[in-house]
Every structure is written in structure tokens, then in C-alpha cells.
């Protein structure tokens, strides 16, 4: 992808949520996560690569014992639309008899997260909760799974920033941005 075009995408994008708004929204997840998980010795699984920023923000604020690992399952592989699910990495820590918290950037169609939840349950997890930076409301579509914790409502637009990418770029954008139509 042309680097000048990538810069133009960012320069012309609409800021949906500023960095401060994102951080404030994520702060709102800390209390319910703590209340529900602090006595369960949870295993937190980041869904790579999108969860990096959200995990980096939340982890130091979760003041209880937990273990962390990650999964890498994707339907996008740098594309703008999903395709067949590809498992790049499954968790190394045993899931059996554990309470799992999946952390991801965005719940949109929910197909990838549903597959990961199903995998965790098949491997013997006691429970699986989902925390996401945002939930996209897609007109006329009901996702096969819902997030238990969602910091933001995301419009039905292609968004990037704070861990979410545009053709594998702009995960580092300071906030959440929508591409111009």
C-alpha cells in the first residue's frame, strides 16, 4: 500500500472518539471487570493484534491476580472485509477449569470472537467473558455473540486507531477514526 495514500486516509478521517474519550470509556470497564473477576483467578486472553492497545491500557488498572496469554485468530489478514477464519496461535496456558476474559478491539460481526469462545469452552473453560473497546452496530445484522463489557458504541463505518488497523497501519492512531466514504 502506498504510504502517501495511508497518510491521506488518516488526514481525511473523521475522529469518532478522541484519545481522552477512549481512555475515559475504558476506565468505565475497570470496576465491573474487577467486581466480576477479582476472586476467580482469570486467564486474560488478548485477541491479537487488535487488543494490544486495549490490553495495554486495562491491565495495569486491574488490581487483582490474573494470568495473561493471547490468541491470534483472524478473518481479515490486512483486508477490509473478513474471510475464512485462520488460527495463527492458540493459547499456551491450559484453559480447562479457568475463567477466561477475552479482550479484543471491536465486536462487529462477532464471527471470530464466537469461534474463540467456542474453542475456549471446548477446551474446558468454566466461563468466558468478552471485553471489547467497542461494539459496532450494523444495521439489519445481529451478531452471533455479544460482549459482556463494551467501552464504546461504534458507528457502522470502517474505523481504525487505538489498536484497530487500516490495511495493517494506523493501529497507533490516537483515538478512533472513521474512513471517509
Description:
The protein has helices at residues 3-12, 19-37, 52-58, 111-122, and strands spanning 14-18, 43-47, 67-74, 86-89, 99-107, 127-136, 149-154, 159-160, 175-178. The strands form two sheets. A six-stranded mixed sheet has the order 4-3-2-5-6-7. The radius of gyration is 16 Å and the shape is globular. The protein is of the alpha/beta class and 181 residues long. The protein has a single domain, classed as 3-Layer(aba) Sandwich (Rossmann fold). Helices cover 27% and strands 29% of the residues. The chain starts with a helix and ends with a strand. The chain has four helices and nine strands.
Blueprint (SSEs and pairs):
Blueprint: H1 3-12, E1 14-18, H2 19-37, E2 43-47, H3 52-58, E3 67-74, E4 86-89, E5 99-107, H4 111-122, E6 127-136, E7 149-154, E8 159-160, E9 175-178
Parallel strand pairs: 2-3, 2-5, 5-6, 6-7
Antiparallel strand pairs: 1-9, 3-4, 8-9
Question: What are the main properties of this structure?
Answer:
single chain, Rossmann fold, 3-stranded antiparallel beta sheet, alpha/beta, globular, 27% helix, 181 residues, 6-stranded mixed beta sheet, 9 strands
